[in-house]
Amino acid sequence: MRSGLQRRLLLLLLVPLGIFALLSIYFDYQTAGNVAQQKDQQLLRLLPLLADSVVAPGITPDGAPLLLLAPAVQDFLKGRTGSSGFRISAADGEFLAGDSWVAEVLPSTPEPEFHSMEHNGITYRIAGQRVSTAAGGLIVQLADGSDARQQWVRSIVFKVLLPNLILVVAAGFAVNWAVTRAIKPLIELKDAVERRSPRDLSAIDPLSTPAEVQPLVSALNRLFGLVNDQAESQRRFVADAAHQLRTPLAGLQAQVEAWAQAAQAAQAAQGKSADGAITLSADKIIKLRSATRRTSQLANQLLALSRADASTAAAQPTQCVDLKDLCESILPLHLDAATHKGIDLGLEAQAAQVSGYEWLLRELLSNLVDNAVKYTPPGGTVTIRCGPVAGYAGHQAPAAPQVPAPASAGPAGKRWGVFLEVEDNGPGIAPQERSRALQRFYRVLGTEGEGNGLGLAIADEIARVHHSQLELADASMGDGKAAHGSRGLRVRLSL
Question: Is this model's pTM higher than 0.85 or not?
Fold first, then answer.
């Protein structure tokens, strides 16, 4: 906007000023030409009087004629002392009287002729004519150094061009300042739109913008409203569909769980002599149970993703969340799954509180722990951590083992006070895959285990609601190495 609108305004304002300056120069030249024509007419009137001033032939040894200057000629020469002169020459151009510096010019016809010459830095307009006098045929010349047109070429730089150039430059600075001030609200509007999150579709206040831009702002607000309504419709559809699926899926999962337990019990009762048909049936029921669990989990995650939307969360008030209590309440929910895989699920919690949405932070932590337990190999380690950030001015960290900070310390320009973290020594995520791992339904290639690719996406959405972002880094696990020769993964949320 600055390089487009401002440049056009400056161009549209300065070009007319330049044209006005050229017109000023033109009219100034025309005025000088009119004055010069009047000077020429005056010289033409004085030439006959100068010829009449020769009253007798030369009686002196040098042959100079006897002169008696006419009053008009005498007044002309006295009124322009230092910038006027005359010359009387013989028919062959020989100097007889007057000023010798006046250039010798031999008119070819009896008509008056004009020419210019420069003497002592002054440009003279000279009129000459062949005339008949009391001394015979002579050439008379009058020189006028006050001719406006003759002096115009010299004075144009200082009297016309320079003032107009200064005027245009000063006007350029003034116009640039005025245009910058005038379009400042547009620049502020552009910056406000650029700073917005793609998820922020709230209306712009039209009263904070100039009257000329208010129709554009109103059109943008209508567009924001349409897009927001469409997005809200999609969110409601996903939430309603996920909510409606939960009940039948829960019933189906309960039935399949009962069948699986019955099949496993029958298979255990048969022992080594178990019928092959019973074994095949039990395997199919177990696979059906696994698929049902995944479907039920997908419905729950879709519902959580819809609830984690920024606009949905913003409609509810924030509250003071005790992160230590939150971690302690999440740990038992995943303890059975971790124990079943032989995973050491631990907790390193320090006292820390934050203003936020407790139900969303619970969903975030639950997804992170579920992912860690799901993808960590049997015998691995998963650790939940929370506490104040070491060295933060607003908190005094208790005497406890320091938690290493990940490579990225959060968004630039902000200082964070507390953190929530889940670390495992599983396969981890390669650095080039981490940004894509936060996308919905994306699963890292070669990943073992069941999943829908929504866990990290839901957690990242919740982090954005809390004006933060997830930080993915390699695990440290105390000794700087993850188990099983893998890099492990540490996911941190700084608040």
Answer: no
